[in-house]
Amino acid sequence: MGMKVGIIGCGSISKYRHAPEYKANPYVDEIVFYDRNIERAQELADLFDGKVAHTLEELLSDPTIVAISDCSSNESHHVFSTQALHNGKHVLCEKPISLTVEHANEIVRAQKTSGKNLMVGHNQRFTRAHQKAKEIIQNKELGKVLTFRTTFGHAGPEGWGVNKTNSTWFFKKERSGLGVAGDLGIHKVDLLHYLLDDHITHVSAFQGALDKVDENGQPIEVCDNIVCSLKTKQGYLGTAAFSWTYYGEEDNSTIIYCEKGIMKIYHSNEHQLEVITKDGEVIQYKLENIQTNDHQTNSGVIDSFIEAIRLDQTPLVTGEDALSSLKVILGIMEAAETEKVVHVL
């Protein structure tokens, strides 16, 4: 007998990632959809052969539902994820875990009280190129890490969201909160923590709403670009750029510079991981292409979440992991606003 799962929030992330990946998972039997807009829930239920919960209460009090994906917008995660955990459900919460440390702590506390799994959808850890890169760093194949640079940018969320217009919630301060930093930046912060097995402790940054406008033609209320300098606990130094204005091509690349060579990740379309040694030797790995908004592939997040529940394991991205990435992003926002170096605790 397979599992029954619920999804809260029936926007693009549910439609293109969560629902199809649950549907494809052999251990999941049925999906129940809830959205404040019942038509949206009905649309996905029809698409994925699922059912609709008419109220949140109906979804959360159903004892046959084992796990919940919280795909609500950023400002609601602490409400829905916390309630789902307290109702004895395993929870997969979309990133960022929340917009404030206080709200993130609320979710993490609910996880501890409930004893259920809480996983956060930082999907960069799941790609084979990133996992291989971590292995090379861990095995010290290129000696120790010295510096790094990473970027994540595309043409912006207005082409991805449900309504495909500039009125997208990603551009609204009270719902998106963190602009491109919370949308794309937090993914790379989590990735750096994972790859380097370290934590970013000091940050500085510049940000701006350089090009995006809202539905009234006004500059958006959150940043569409942010450029950062980062230092980790172990003393690695790096830079990061996050953008909603890479018009023409998405960039999701990372370069790690080590004592004995360089690792380029998602730098070339042909080879997802390239190692260039100090002596000029080039080793190329052909692993799977990374997911882009235009090219949806299985992210591995749902499969990993279901496996953690089945085997009673700690999820690959815990609430604590997500909280530490959020703290860095909040530090970056503070650094950009104050033009000071911020120490992330």
TrEMBL record:
Lineage top rank: taxon: Bacteria
Family matches, as Pfam families: GFO_IDH_MocA, GFO_IDH_MocA_C3
InterPro entries named in the record: Gfo/Idh/MocA-like_OxRdtase_N, Gfo/Idh/MocA_Oxidoreductase, GFO_IDH_MocA-like_dom, NAD(P)-bd_dom_sf
All residue ranges annotated as the Gfo/Idh/MocA-like oxidoreductase N-terminal domain in the record: 3-122
Domain GFO/IDH/MocA-like oxidoreductase: 130-263
Name listed for the protein in its UniProt record: Gfo/Idh/MocA family protein
